[in-house]
Specification:
By secondary structure, this protein is mainly β. It is built from 2 helices and 30 strands. Helices cover 7% and strands 43% of the residues. The strands form 7 sheets. Strands 16, 17, 18, 19 and 20 form a 5-stranded antiparallel sheet that branches. Strands 21, 22, 23, 24 and 25 form a 5-stranded antiparallel sheet that branches.
Length: 389
């Protein structure tokens, strides 16, 4: 044995003899530490201002996630890993976070596995995973990419191969039960009083599909043309108030659609812009471009000036607030260059403005003057979409 090893052995032997001598002398031995119990901590009940932020993590998209924040304090509450390019939404009862996503065994290659996941909103634990056909659209989490049926039993998932279709998942049997072909149409808008969804089509019409109790498609109907996709295309992101949904066009017009009765009913379009606004080329822009505070009937829209062809994803310079009943502008709120906005419905309501580049969310009260009350910083890497409950 070399000298270094001999020296180490002597030291260890001496330590052992010293400990044995202390025990023999009756030295007190400390009590063992109590055993720890591993548990999952539950979040406090949501109060209407909990924010679920979808971050596709553009720098490493195999690792997209949902961030959970307290909109009142700005506190970070938790995170859910959501795989490659996930789309997300809340269940109708807000007890679950739904995720449609993709996993590859070599992160970016190998056999593609598409799944639909159900996560608990109080613990953020995975409750269920359901295999779905490997056709779901791997895109950004726009509203309408993933949606629940009127009774909450079925989930509709947007597909693109690039042919468009919709996968129907039965939450009772926990399996995919149908695929509905929707050629030339995109995004899913469930009806609130019937087992149907409508989808926007590239010719300016709406396709409506009806289902039976087992989730099988039974009817298809096509509406008349209600917008011109060449001269006034609309954002697929809607605001929903019961049976009524609202779309905003690239040129700043609002198209109201009522999903009730036998077929969709369309309101006459109205403009967000007055003459001066049009002269300065104010236009809507961003990703989640609008928000609706239902209690006050206030409609918020991301707006930027000097708009032009191709500026429809520009961040906002101002947020414009409109009274839906009178269609009058109520306020022009300075923006933090938000690309996405949403409004909470709890209490008096709060308006959340998300800036991707700064990774921050400004929070404003929905009240006279729309005062800014806080800023939440460090929100993900490329956070893009929000839901509030």
């Amino acid at each position: 044995m070399n000298r270094s090893k001999t020296g180490l052995a002597s030291v260890l032997l001496g330590m052992g003899l010293g400990v044995s001598a202390a025990w023999a002398a009756g030295a007190s031995i400390p009590e063992p530490l109590p055993e720890e119990t591993v548990r999952v901590e539950k979040l406090a009940p949501a109060d209407g201002n909990r924010i679920y932020v979808t971050d596709p993590a553009f720098g490493h998209m195999v690792d997209s996630r949902v961030l959970v924040l307290d909109g009142n304090s700005g506190r970070f509450l938790g995170l859910i890993g959501t795989g490659f390019g996930a789309v997300t939404t809340l269940s109708r009862d807000a007890k679950s976070i739904y995720v449609a996503t993709t996993y590859y065994p070599r992160l970016s290659r190998g056999r593609r596995d598409d799944v639909f996941e159900i996560h608990d909103t109080q613990t953020l634990e995975l409750k269920a995973e359901i295999d779905i056909p490997p056709r779901r659209a791997q895109g950004l989490s726009y509203r309408g990419m993933l949606a629940s049926s009127a009774d909450g039993r079925f989930v509709y998932i947007q597909n693109a191969t690039p042919a468009t279709s919709v996968t129907v998942v039965d939450l009772e049997s926990r399996k995919a039960v149908a695929e509905v072909q929707t050629p030339g149409c995109w995004s899913i808008y469930p009806w609130r009083t019937a087992q149907r969804f409508s989808t926007l089509c590239g010719d300016g019409t709406m396709l409506t599909v009806g289902f039976d109790a087992a989730g099988q498609p039974t009817t298809r109907s096509r509406s008349a043309k209600f917008f011109d996709p060449d001269s006034d295309p609309i954002f697929t992101h809607p605001e929903v108030d019961g049976d009524q949904i609202y779309f905003v066009s690239y040129n700043g017009n609002v198209y109201g659609v009522r999903l009730a009765g036998d077929a969709p009913a369309f309101d006459a379009a109205w403009s967000l812009l007055d003459g001066r606004d049009k002269k300065n080329n104010w236009r809507p822009g961003g990703l989640q471009i609008s928000a609706l505070h239902r209690a006050s009937g206030t409609f918020f829209v991301n707006m930027h000036d000097k708009g032009a062809e191709g500026s429809h994803k520009n961040p906002s310079k101002e947020i414009w607030a409109f009274d839906l009943a009178s269609r009058k502008r109520l306020a022009r709120i300075p923006s933090n260059h938000a690309v996405s906005i949403t409004a909470s419905q709890g209490g008096s309501g709060q308006l959340f403005l998300l800036n991707i580049e700064k990774a921050s969310i400004e929070v404003h009260h929905i009240a006279a003057g729309y005062p800014k009350v806080r800023e939440i910083n460090g929100v993900g890497e490329t956070a893009m979409f929000m839901e509030v409950n």
